[in-house]
Please model this.
Amino acid sequence: MLEVTVKNSSNQPMVGIEIDVAVKPGPPESWGIKEANVNGVADFELDPGDYYVYFNTNRFPSGYKIQPEQKVSIQKGQTKNIKIILERN
Model:
């Protein structure tokens, strides 16, 4: 499992932001699109392997810098936690 937490530089959760996960950068499959909950967290049930975490520029909050994609490796039986801090422009 992959747990992605997105907050701003004031440590406030980025509620409702779209978080994408895919095997390679580009349009994600339907299983790789989630919105962050009230805590800024999105959970993805993934098979073991390598994935990319990134943002959809069409649904990205204005006033923040878009972060580059991050590569993550998921191991069987592991929960991987990623925390992303968005900085203001």
